[in-house]
Amino acid sequence: MATSFAYFRTTLQALVCGCVLALTACATTPPPTSELAAARQAVSRASDAHAEQYATDELARAGSLLTQAQAAMADRREGEARELALRSAALADLATARSREAAVRAELEQRRAEVAGLRQRLGMEEAP
Q1: What is the dihedral of CA 25, 82, 75, 31, to 10 degrees?
Q2: What is the DSSP string of 16-49?
Q3: Whole-Å CA distances, 45 to 11, 40, 84, 96
Q4: Whole-angstrom distance, CA of residue 41 vs CA of residue 32
Q5: What is the Cα–Cα distance from 62 to 56, expressed in whole angstroms?
Q6: Is the dihedral of CA 111, 115, 116, 117 positive or negative?
Q7: Rounded to a whole number, what is the distance in angstroms from the first to the last CA of the chain?
Q8: Is the pLDDT higher at 41 or at 6?
Q9: How many angstroms separate the most distant Cα atoms in the chain?
Q10: Res. 33: pLDDT tops 50
Q11: pLDDT tens digits for 105-122?
């Protein structure tokens, strides 16, 4: 039985599609240098916001994840490095937010104490 040209054409198309898919799968994404830089900046911002005092656990975990991300990058595990860097940045941002919240709460308590003191003084002045 003779093989038709249509059979070869279908086989050729399948082969071309397979090659295209293989090349697409082999295409690499750029290294996560921007994610690592963003994570470093987020950890730095958290430290600047005194997160070591108000959000110790989050800051420590963010630093640990950043170290792991850098190690993964050095080992050319770029996907893992990207994920760890993003998690580190998120935790550092959380630490910054918690630190700022604690600072605002402390200032609020200070202002409330000042208002209470002023009310007491005003109340004492009106008594005589």
Answers
A1: 60
A2: HHHHHHHHHHHPPPPPTHHHHHHHHHHHHHHHHT
A3: 58, 9, 18, 7
A4: 14
A5: 10
A6: positive
A7: 122
A8: 41
A9: 122
A10: yes
A11: 999 999 999 999 999 988
State both tokens at 79: 């996907």
Instruction: Provide the residue type at 3 as one letter.
Output: T
Instruction: Name the more confident of 109 and 124.
Output: 109
Output the pTM of the full model: 0.68
Which tokens go with 121? 């003084």
Cα–Cα dist 65/91, whole Å: 9
Name the DSSP letter for residue 3: P
How far apart, in Å, are the Cα atoms of 50 and each of 47, 54, 105?
5, 7, 14
Asked if 46 and 62 count as a contact pair (C-beta separation under 8 A), the reply is yes
Residue 53 CA to residue 105 CA, distance in Å, equals 14
Whether 89 contacts 69, CB under 8 Å: no
Burial classification of residue 126, based on how many CB atoms lie within 10 Å of its CB (0-12 exposed, 13-18 middle, 19 or more buried) = exposed
CA distance 28 to 37: 20
Q: Which two tokens stand for residue 122?
A: 């005003």
